[in-house]
Predict the structure.
Amino acid sequence: MTETRTIALTVNGQPRQAAVTTRSTLVDVLREQLRLTGTHVGCEHGVCGACTVLVDGEPVRGCLLLAVQADGRHVETVESLAPDPARLNALQAAFVRHHGVQCGFCTGGILMTLTAALRENPRPTEAEIRDMLSGHLCRCTGYQGMVDAVLSLFDPAAPPASAVRTREGGYIGAPIPRREDARLLTGRGTFVDDLEIPGVAHAAMLRSPHAHARVRRIDTTAARALPGVLTVVTAADIADIQKPWPARMPSPVPGTTLRHGVRHTLPRDKIRHAGEVIAAVVAESRALAEDACDLIEANYEVLPVAASAAAALAPGAPLVYDELGDNVAAHIVQRVGEPERAFASADHTLRETFRVMRGGSHSMEGRGVVARYDEALDAFTVWDATQAPHAIRAMLAYLFELPEHRVRVIAPPDVGGGLGPKASFYPEEALVCWLARRLRRPVKWIEDRHEHFISAAQEREQIHTVEIAFTREGTLLGLRDVFTHDLGMYGALVAPVITACTVPGPYRIPNIHSELRAVYTHLQPTGAVRGAGRPQGVLVMERMMDRMAEALGLDPAEVRARNLIPADAFPYPVGMWFRDGAPLTYDSGNYPELLRQALERADYAEARREQATLRAQGRCRGIGVAICVEGVGLGPFEGAIVRVDSRGRVVVTSGAPPQGQGYQTAFAQIAADAVGVRFEDVDVVTGDTGAIPFGVGSFASRVTATAGPAIFQAGGALREKIFAVAAHLLEAAPADLEIVDGAVRVRGLPDRGVPLAQVARLGNAGVAFGMVMPGGLQVGLEASAYFTPSQAGYSASAHVCILDVDPDTGEVAIVRYVVGHDCGNVINPLIVEGQILGGVAHGLSNALYEEAFYDDQGQSLASTFLDYPLPSAREMPRVEMFHLTTPSPINPLGVKGAGEAGTLPVTAAVAGAVEDALRSFGARVTRIPLNPARISDLIRGSG
């Protein structure tokens, strides 16, 4: 039996007691017993900092401090900083003004560290602030907003304007501070693990230690006998939901297919990756469930492993799916023009091979799901940290053979980052529902960081052999790109098809041969990670543009400028098929101007002169330029329901759940302008399949360009309904009405009006029970719309990176980083800039740090943030940014997408800059990431 004792501690100034076991941590007590859920757990090994609290005034990792060690001590949590969200302290208010928070999962710990540090040093420099933050990992913000927030506390310079409206009086385009921030900054967010569900039991998963094996026997006897264990299940127990999973997506390219290997909720024949679930335990606590997992005895027949795409394509390779006969999931060739003739007639050709690493999203909140089963209704309510609640509902309805109205999936108000992998369906979601039905009580499963490393979807790994043909003047004539994409044991064609279509970029290339092989391997499943195939495509093309410049003795920026699609060429057909199943046709852009402004902002000519001076002094200064096009706003649709409730407030409902993108704010801006009401009179509901029948999800930089127009269209229709009802009340023509300050009034007669609440009472409920609607009015101040774009839109970015490389250590120091971005019309500049900053941080992390290593047996060699480094605020540079606007013609708002834009060109810009810095060493950058060891190898000539 585990020993239990009572501890006494002072928490946020109040004496508290807690009954704890010897292995309970302080964060366990705070969250589970005291319900102070603003402190989160992001890694369980004390690296990410999300769990930071103050103990006797000092920052402490709550996930590492045993509860018994806090006995008699004073503890401060984020909830102590402000009495309620309406009364933020100075630091919290500065975070709002400077957009220092996005998903908010890590914010509580960051605020506590800063609080303690500012007590010691109330006027830190920027470098000191970055040091203060360096013990924290944030995947969303890029840290710059946090740094600026602290700087603003003692800098009398005017803070950034918090304009509520544009100069024209509208809300669309105004940098309105996010309304989400106050609750996140005060520890009042609601993430899936924060939900207080009475009677909830806790699940843990037993995972295979082998990448390829057959399970010969599973003995659960000892696990079932452990006190506190409620049930243990294996594949044999869940036969009713062991249906074959459907293919995730067909090939969008005509004449090609995805060869789909059959997968089940739990493996029926073979295990196909290390970390695959083979059994689930439910107990009264997560700790007990994990103890029980350790007692399960599994006997395996270990099989040969194909742990890379190359190994999977080799003759006689072990098969991931025996029924397919080989490991090729798809072989897709796309051709434009006559590439063979172009290469045969070109003045010059160049050929190179590039490799991009495998990596994960590592959102600070892992995956998580809670399910409750209602026996009387034979229905599930599921709270899921997902990017796609409607897709989860569809899969659960299929597995459980239920109509969709009996499966309600809710993404909680706060999801701690998505970044791609949370858009997938996983076995745990089905298992938790099945277990809740079996036990007739709610069941929760929360992914820990180690599970994320070995089971959450990954992406990125590709090997490209690329050739270009060009004239002696530097004009591109042809492109040939042949690459393999590692799908893992299960995946879709999302990333590789997007890669193929991203490679041509913003350039006029009349002849293209694109060929990809998507390959099954015995590694964990793949999906999309922020960028979804685009960073690889940008890297390949931009590296070849650098090589062409070198071959011709031209400046890299000049070579790009000579080949850019001109501004008067839109819409521009590339000649390929994109991921959306439509022809790859760029809708709008001005790539020459975007590049020109980026070079001007970076003082490019002066930077080249300074580089020459520094090189003469022995400094390794490099400059990299990258420009890209990003397919965004993917369909098939997104919807919105906009209504006026009995209070006279406008309520917007959309199916897309946020993970830090600020939908509560941006959607309200769009609806306020469409309906004609005040921004503060709009409420927003997202991510609930019970609130809107159809939805797609939040990924692929798509929501503003799909849900946004739907909200705008539904809002306009609602406005007409409001005027129809108000016209009856005011005895006026609808055309003579306007909405001002929460009331409908006759234009030019401010004293003649009615509150929106009164309009809603008539429009939604009629005069009274049993009475006819007057004047033939229709019932329901509500409108819905589903926007279906005819094709994807195309954003663009231009990045300039100036950096130094230390040839003795291989360390890279970013000197300057400039980003130019075109996402069409901007709904909220503050939010867009925050998204781009976070994207740049993710891109720099991919370029310089992240790599998921596996041995030849498919075993992950990176299982913590100690061996899978992510950049902190200390490593991130200050990013300079500007916007260029070319509105999209394919939706009424003229918007495109921005969620991934900051990520895409970074690896290319950094790779170009590093190779430029090491030119005297003859280094050739062909592999990402460029960590110090790899750079040192390049310098020594062994890279």
